[in-house]
Design a protein that fits this description.
Elements (H helix, E strand, L loop, with lengths): L2 H6 L1 H14 L1 H8 L4 H8 L3 H14 L2 E4 L2 E4 L1 H6 L9 H8 L2 H5 L1 H7 L13 H27 L7 E5 L7 H7 L4 E6 L1 H13 L6 E5 L11 E7 L7 H14 E12 L6 H17 L9 H10 L3 E6 L5 E7 L3
Parallel strand pairs: 3-4, 3-6, 4-5, 6-7
Antiparallel strand pairs: 1-2, 7-9, 8-9
The structure holds S-adenosylmethionine.
S-adenosylmethionine binds next to helix 10 and strand 4.
Length: 330
């Protein structure tokens, strides 16, 4: 089969996945499986013919399997699509597919060099966008990225961390739990902070993790941090914006302070990561800002070096994200 022929249908797969998550079909099955099509129809109050066709599509995709005439989740569905499980990726799937209309206009966006957010074209509203965006990042963190960061950075003896664009606190919360003497200021916009607040309270960390609303470029900040964490921000920002972010990070760090940049980025040539890095570069431009991109780590290092950082380390991780660290001279 030609690549062109295969590619024609691939967006159907994402639609099947998205619908199952939105309708709660995988969770319903997990609880009651194996289930007949009739049971699902009754539970969802859905159209019988469409529901049957949908369940069969899930089977050919490998999301469900059949037990006689009944349906049940495959092991992968059970592992990755059950809310509450550590490897849950459902919110990330919703976030990525919230860009459905944006991708549908790709030809136009390429001509115009323009970004289009899902709430700008009405595919989802702004609160849904923010919720899926933040929980999607949280899925990625919980399903392995937190461990990667903790195993590949050493904050022993560090006391004061600024988490720039810290989202829901997906990294600063586990960092606080790992380093009991660490105090964190998590900086972000209003919407992520509302979600972060719930998590911080749940984990009883309100006295060690302060939430600060604002823009890193303009907000007033202390200048005695000994760690600045910049995770998931560089890839959604232009080179010019990133140079400003690094200059500000340098300014707020004390001498000897550490900057940790974790992001989609390319470290050398990596066959395994090449496909997603390439697609990600397109996505970041249409989804976040025209100057955004899946940058090469050497560019990130040179922007850090230009503002005064030294002793950089490039850390290749087994997941899609990588890490660059550097220090402010003593
Ligand atoms: C992709 S999310 C990353 C969230 C989290 N750090 C993580 O790695 O999961 C990027 C976050 O950075 C925030 N952000 C981007 N630019 C920012 C800026 N200049 N000041 C404050 N927050 C910013 C966004 O609001 C968003 O919550």
């Amino acid at each position: 089969m030609s690549i062109a022929y295969e590619t024609i249908y691939q967006f159907w797969n994402s639609a099947i996945l998205r619908a199952g998550i939105k309708l709660g079909i995988f969770s319903l099955l997990e609880e009651k499986q194996p289930c007949s099509s009739e049971f699902i129809v009754k539970s969802l109050n859905s159209d019988p013919k469409f529901t049957h066709a949908y369940l069969e599509a899930c089977v050919v995709l490998g999301l469900l399997e059949k037990d006689g005439n009944k349906y049940k989740n495959t092991k992968e569905t059970s592992d990755y699509l059950m809310p509450g499980k550590l490897d849950y990726l459902g919110d990330l799937a919703l976030h990525i597919t919230n860009y459905w209309s944006t991708w549908g206009k790709l030809d136009q966006l390429i001509l115009e060099g323009r970004t289009e957010l899902p709430f700008e074209n009405g595919f989802v509203d702004a609160p849904t966008y923010w919720k899926d965006y933040m929980y999607g990042q949280h899925n990625r963190a919980e399903s392995g990225q937190i461990n990667n960061m903790i195993q590949n950075t050493d904050l022993t003896g560090r006391k004061k961390l600024l988490d720039v664009g810290g989202g829901m606190g997906s990294y600063s919360i586990p960092l606080c739990q790992t380093y009991p003497n660490l105090q964190v200021c998590l900086l972000d916009a209003k919407e992520p902070l509302e979600l972060a607040r719930k998590l911080v309270e749940e984990k009883n960390l309100s006295d060690r993790l302060v939430l600060k609303e604002g823009n890193f470029h303009s907000i007033e900040l202390d200048t005695d941090y000994d760690v600045v964490l910049i995770s998931g921000v560089v890839c959604i920002t232009s080179e010019e914006g990133n140079r400003k972010i690094f200059a500000r990070a340098f300014e707020v760090l004390q001498p000897g302070g550490l900057v940790i940049v974790q992001d989609f980025m390319q470290i050398g040539e990596n066959k395994q990561k090449h496909f997603l890095d390439t697609m990600m570069d397109m996505y970041l431009k249409i989804a976040f800002s025209p100057g955004a991109g899946d940058f090469a780590s050497e560019d990130i290092v040179s922007w850090l070096t230009d503002v005064g950082f030294e002793n950089h380390k490039e850390i290749l991780l087994p997941t899609q994200l990588n890490i660059v660290t550097a220090e402010k001279p003593q």
